[in-house]
Every structure is written in structure tokens, then in C-alpha cells.
Amino acid sequence: MKVTVCAVGRLHAKSAERLLTDDYMARFDQTGRPHSWGPLNEIEVEDRKGGGMAGEADLLRKAVPKGTVLITLDERGRVMSSPDFSRKIEHWADQGRDLAFVIGGADGIDPTLRAEADFSISFGAMVWPHKLVRVMLVEQLYRAASIRAGTPYHRV
Length: 156
Fold this sequence. Notes:
CATH topology: Alpha/beta knot
Low-confidence stretches: none
CATH superfamily: SPOUT methyltransferase, trefoil knot domain
Strand order of the largest sheet: 2-1-4-3-5
CATH class: Alpha Beta
CATH architecture: 3-Layer(aba) Sandwich
Structural class: alpha/beta
Distance between the termini: 26 Å
Largest sheet: 5 strands, parallel
Helix content: 40-55%
Mean pLDDT: 95
Number of domains: 1
Number of strands: 5
Order of helices and strands: EHEHEHEHEH
């Protein structure tokens, strides 16, 4: 199962967010590989024409690999525990589906793109900066792979 994170904005090469994202992506690839989870890829898009959320949505649509399960990160999405998230990913993996997680820009995800999503998740009622959401998502993907692998990373 290939996993793609499509996000608005670029993480600076030496930023704390970039270092954390890269670390958790590498951990996911290593932990998920024996279970056919991965690779985990990242596609960053920027709306240089200033099209707002609609322009970002067009770029994100183009970035999402065809035939994947489209999952948005949105404050209106479903709040899940880490084990529930892991089981959901395992379910899609068992179906032979690839996944694409979409993170919008500072104003969120355009409503038309949200409506196209197969699933939507939220990291709670608080609004998080989109750069931190990326770190949190890849950490949760790694945690899900760790739960699937039975490693001690996730402790109940």
C-alpha cells in the first residue's frame, strides 16, 4: 500500500518541522515495509497564482495519485484514537488500496475538495498550523505501522 501526503506549502529544508517529518517518514517506511505499508511519499504544492482555497484545491487534486483513497485532514473530520486509525489503515491495506492524505493551507481545504474525500480525520477541535499537522500526521502513520507491527512504540 503506497501512502502519499499531499500538502499545501513547503517545509524549509532545515526547519524543525522538516526534520521531524523526514524522521517519521523514514520510521514509517522501515516499520511498515514488512507489512507492505509504504513507501510514504510527500508532495508539496504552492498556489503561486493566488487562487485561494479553490486554487490550492486544484493543485492538490493534480497531486493526488489516481485511484487512491482520498483522506482529508480537516477540523470537521472524524476524531480517532491511534489504534482505531491503525485499524482503518489496515482495512484499506487489506483491500489493496493506496492512500492519499491531503493537508490544506492556512485557510483549510476548499469545500469542493472536502466533498470529494472518501474519509476525513481531525486531530481534535483545536485548529493546528498546517505545518504541524504534517508532522502530526506522519507521526500517527508511523504509530499506526508500529501498532500493526506490535512494537512497543505505542503504549496503552
